[in-house]
Amino acid sequence: MAPRAQHCAIWFGTPGTREQAMFAAIGWPLRLARAEAARQVGMRGGDLVVAVVDLRDADAAHIEALETALAEHADLPTLALVDADTGEDPARQHLLSLCHARLLAPFDAGRLEAALASLLSSPRRDIASIGGQSPAMLGVRALLHRYADVELPVLITGESGTGKELAARALHDLSSRRGKPFVAMNCGAISPTLVQSELFGHERGAFTGAATRRMGLFESADGGTVFLDEIGDLPLDAQTNLLRVLQEGTVERVGSSHAIRVDVRVLAATHVDLEAAIAAGRFRQDLYYRLDVLRLQLPPLRARGDDVELLARQFLDTFRTGHAVQARGFSAAARQCLRRHAWPGNVRELLNRVRRAAVVAEHALIEPADLQLGGATPQVVALDAHRDRTERDALVDALRATGCNVSASARRLRVSRVTIYRLCRKHGVSLEAFR
Ligand SMILES: Nc1ncnc2c1ncn2[C@@H]1O[C@H](COP(=O)(O)OP(=O)(O)OP(=O)(O)O)[C@@H](O)[C@H]1O
């Protein structure tokens, strides 16, 4: 069989001689990577690479290392080698849910080759637009992959500018709905009197000014995804109709009692506390339960560690491709300012500051003054941000090391279980992401 140099399989761990021989026989170069050192796996652009994980005899430590490796390479198509017992063990089951395909032992070279080929031919699932390698963002990326093809609503929470809309788009792009429309609406940006008509459409003459019949957003997104940003601002009457879409899969245009069937997945986002809105009578509890089936919490930028510099670099590089600017990088002092700033406006603020700095910088390196961060961040904020980051990293490390065992994590950090749950909420860490 002709060797296919452009194909390559990365085996996280150590393959047996039988498996090595099979890969050689089907012409697939095999690269070995220690699961614990997954970050070191580099790939050349254009390579067709798949990951292979053997779950048949994996012990707890190897499973934990594999989970980290797969989270770090969430975009890599992954084949799991399993046997009949694999599905019985919850830890392996979770790992399996992160893989894109599985091959049941015993298998021969022919079946292995077919499994690898079908993995490569399935559409490439890429969420490269979402930058960041911090533990917090690896958790988010893993959840995006996990939620993408589940036909349930996702409630995306996080401070303003953390990337909620970007995450919604990624969920759509990763899902089997990706060829269909992605329609976004900011519920707070539309006048309350027009929201119903925007979302559900109207019949001619339904209200003053409705000169023609109009299709609503849900109908126009049929087969695809509707993203409702600032869902907390949706007026109560529109909330009732949204509930019908979620419960019955139908809409009624304003001025009509005829139910029209629609096939849409609903994603919603909020940066306000919906439970407080429920308590204040501004949001329907039943709708909240319908929307909050899968939760994706985006961490604030100040909790993403080195991602700040990584994103700043990425934003500068992108900006430079379209604009003739002097700036090619950041001075050490500017990098320190980036690390210290508390980023109340999150990624959006970083993006805008970097673009602005790129324009005003008169030298090759952007300086603190270009970022306008020089004295703007009081030291006390820097310290808080630093504490936040350390606290979050310790939490994530403990959850990883204990296989997401809350009691064991609490013992490890010498805090109560209640504190672990509180810290998870505070830092937007989803236990789901580690299970
Ligand atoms: N991880 C990321 N990598 C690259 N760009 C990002 C990332 N997160 C956010 N951005 C960019 O930051 C900007 C703000 O993101 P987005 O609009 O998705 O935030 P948001 O949470 O929906 O904000 P708001 O709550 O104000 O609606 C966008 O330009 C987006 O492309």
UniProtKB/TrEMBL annotation:
Q: Which UniProt keywords apply?
A: ATP-binding, DNA-binding, Nucleotide-binding, Transcription, Transcription regulation
The record's section on SMART domains has:
AAA (SM00382)
Q: What domain of life does the native source organism fall in?
A: Bacteria
Care to name a GO molecular-function term for this sequence? sequence-specific DNA binding
Listed PROSITE patterns:
SIGMA54_INTERACT_2 (PS00676), SIGMA54_INTERACT_3 (PS00688), SIGMA54_INTERACT_4 (PS50045)
Q: What are the Sigma-54 factor interaction domain coordinates in residue numbering?
A: 130-359
The coiled-coil segments of this chain are: none
What GO terms in the biological process aspect are recorded for it? regulation of DNA-templated transcription
Secreted: is it a keyword of this entry? no
**Would the keyword GTP-binding turn up in this protein's UniProt record?**
no
Which PANTHER family has this protein been placed in?
TRANSCRIPTIONAL REGULATOR-RELATED, TRANSCRIPTIONAL REGULATORY PROTEIN
Name this protein carries in UniProt: Sigma-54-dependent Fis family transcriptional regulator
- Provide the species name: Luteimonas terrae
